Amino acid sequence: MRGLAITALALAVTGCGGDIDRARTSVASHLKDPDSAKFRNERQVSDVAVCGEVNGKNMFGAYSGFSQFLAMKRPGGFNVTIDPDMTDRFAGSVCGYAKAGAEAKTEVKASQPVVEIPGVRWSVQLASVSSEDKAEAISRDLAGSGWKPYTTRRDGKSRVFVGPFSTRAEANAQMDDLAGKKALNGFVLRFQEPAESSK
What DSSP state is assigned to residue 25? Predict the structure, then answer.
């Protein structure tokens, strides 16, 4: 099934047969859902390298955000590096984003200091879905990977959280960890005792 999806994508994007089109196909094949691939800022930076950004759906069907990629030509295809955290030095040097990425991260950290509030606990919300079954599936996956999830049901939506955490800094660290390991883009909010929890 995955092979058919990749083949269909290849036919869709290789109209002119250029390196960028072939690189897109190779990059898409590295995503969990190749058909969901969206590209921007693609450019050929040398005879053997194509750079750009790609976004695709994660295992829960949600887009995980654009990530930098480097596709290096080799006989018969491309070697692909997808670099969501902009930490791959080789890809950064070829594509020219390493310094900019480091500066951007430093600037964000400097402009958003963590202010702790005594006695306040925090959670990370990871999903808000209408299906209770989907929320339970997300929770089971998180629990199986060592996190402590809980779900609530309110206003027709099931929300999936991890927590609570005693400090916002700890919650932020877990949010970043989940983004890197599970491709789940959550957000931190104050913990409230669930009014209605799913089983």
Answer: H
Query: pLDDT tens-digit profile of 152-172?
Result: 888 788 888 888 888 888 888
Give the separation between CA 68 and CA 41, rounded to whole angstroms.
9
- φ, ψ for residue 81 (rounded to 5)? -120, 120
Lowest mean pLDDT among 31-45, 62-76, 100-114: 100-114
Q: What span, in angstroms and rounded, lies between the C-alpha atoms of 21 and 193?
A: 50
Cis peptide before 194 (omega within 30 of 0): no
- Chain-centre distance for alpha carbon 40: 16
Q: Which of 126, 139, 129, 104 is nearest to 171 (CA)?
A: 126
Cβ within 8 Å of residue 126, ≥6 positions away: 138, 142, 149, 160, 161, 162, 178, 184, 186
> Which residues, including other chains, have CB under 8 Å from residue 158's CB and lie 6 or more apart?
127, 128, 129, 130, 131, 132, 134, 135, 151, 152, 198
Calpha distance 66→61 (Å, rounded): 15
Nearest to 66 by CA among 81, 49, 48, 85: 85
Distance CA 74, CA 104 (A): 32
> Out of 3.40.50.970, 3.30.70.1070, 1.10.3720.10, 3.40.50.1010, which CATH number does the structure's domain 122-190 have?
3.30.70.1070
Q: What is the pLDDT of residues 111-134, one digit of tens each?
A: 455 556 677 888 888 888 888 888
